[in-house]
Amino acid sequence: MAHLFNRNVLLGVSGGIAAYKSAELVRELQVRGAQVRVIMTHGAQEFITPLTLQALSGYPVHTELLDEHAELGMGHIELARWADLLLIAPATADLIARLSTGRADDLLTTVALATPAPLMIAPAMNQQMWKDQATEANVNTLLSRGVQIVGPAAGLQACGDVGPGRMEAPAVIADAAERLFASGKLAGKRVVITAGPTREALDPVRYISNNSSGKMGYALAQAAVDAGAITTLVSGPVSLSAPEHTRVFQVHSAEEMLQQCLRLLPECDIFIACAAVADYRPRIVEQQKIKKGPQEVTLQLVRTPDIVAAVAAHEHRPYTVGFAAETNDVLAYARDKMQRKDLDMIVANDVADQAIGFNSDDNAVTVLWRDGEQPLARASKSTIARQIVHLIAQQA
User: Fold this and answer.
1) 221 and 292, same domain (yes or no)
2) Residue 3 maps to a domain
3) pLDDT at 249
């Protein structure tokens, strides 16, 4: 299964005849789930046009170090931050030499210095150039810095020589890129996560809600993205930014959340119900603001829909994970909830502990499934989220 889902691959193309293979490499990376943007050196543009790679990648091709259209004119920094991987294919002898000495005299070498992302190169050159002591020394320098090198392959070259120096096949390069990313536990899986509170309106300005911050649900979304999942958030009102590569649907009420989740079920493999959904809503929602009146007011409340139970009972039922936020008898209530609602897994947490309850940055939970359980000691919600996703990947 592909392991490049949600990865940003910045493809650098330098000036060699093997540049024609870069078009196929763009497609190969995309098929495996990556988003691809391209930097071309001036030499590369003599062999293949930027328009070709723009049409294939779906993004403008970057060629100039000083980009007047970029934010603050610093396009190289924007690209450097965007990349999860800088992949240079083909990498000519000249480019390898410039990388080894830390040159930054064009856009590609400047980005190579500016990015925190790993660097991988696929050399391509004449066989004698590859064997030359200078090239060997430059390659060894890059290897000592942790640069990943794929190839070169041996065979007939464009110049007529036979030997090592051919750029590796695009599929081989893409395989090597995949191996760089260890997280792929949910690669290609379609995950829907609910997060945050719901708000149940009393009138146009007031509502019933709870203290959920959405931090746990959003941390789960980030963990799912990192594990390669195609991730969708159905979020109640929160003040958080969604992780990159996450599709987000904003809702307010429990009914809105239910309807959105049901619409997503045909394209869902794993459903994680992390939202703190209000259990009750006002029977009557006033159309105008309720004016201050008597000392006491009585509200009639009715049950809201049970979202996770509806998902678990649906004809397009995905692997269904619930949450049980309790203040006492946490594990007993969680097991009962898992059985009553026919869930595959449930995450139990004690919200009576303010250090790990609503709005905190930490959590401590116990994950239960039908024939096992795993306590997760107190840690950051991002760490807990990764551990939960790992357990889901093992069980789903």
Assistant:
1) yes
2) no
3) 96
Q: CA-CA distance, 323 to 238, in Å (whole number)?
A: 18
Based on the fold, state whether residues 215 and 108 are members of the same structural domain.
no
Peptide bond just before 294 cis, omega within 30 deg:
no
| pLDDT per position as a tens digit, 16-73 | 889 889 999 999 898 887 889 999 999 898 889 999 999 999 888 988 876 655 544 4
Domain finish residue from 179, 210, 245: 179
Q: Catalytic one among 159, 261, 268, 274?
A: 159
Which are the contacts of 191, defined by CB distance < 8 A and separation ≥ 6? 224, 229, 230, 231, 232, 268, 269, 270, 271, 272
- Note the pLDDT tens digit of each residue in 282-322: 999 989 998 888 878 888 999 999 999 999 999 989 999 99
Query: 237 and 142 in one domain?
Result: no
Residue 185 resides in a domain: no
Same domain, 164 and 199: no
Q: What is the rounded CA–CA span in Å between residue 186 and residue 193?
A: 14
Q: Give the domain CATH number at 263.
A: 3.40.50.10300
Name 193's Cβ contacts closer than 8 Å, sequence gap at least 6: 217, 220, 221, 224, 231, 232, 233, 234, 271, 272, 274
User: pLDDT grade, residue 114 (50/70/90)?
Assistant: confident
CB 346 within 8 A of CB 364: no
Same domain, yes or no: 21 and 163: yes
Residue 205 has pLDDT above 60, yes or no: yes
Nearest residue to 115 (alpha-carbon basis) of 202, 266, 8, 231: 8
195 Rama class: left (phi>0) / alpha (psi -120 to 50) / beta: beta
Structural domain that includes position 59? 8-179
Among residues 230, 225, 318, the alpha carbon closest in space to that of 268 is found at: 318
Strands 85-91 and 8-13: parallel
Number of compact structural domains in the chain: 2
Closest-CA residue to 345 (of 254, 263, 251, 273): 273
Is residue 127 within 8 A of residue 155, CB to CB? The reply is no
Q: 195 and 162 in one domain?
A: no
308 vs 143: CA distance, rounded Å: 50
Active site residue 274: no
Q: What is the pTM of this model?
A: 0.62
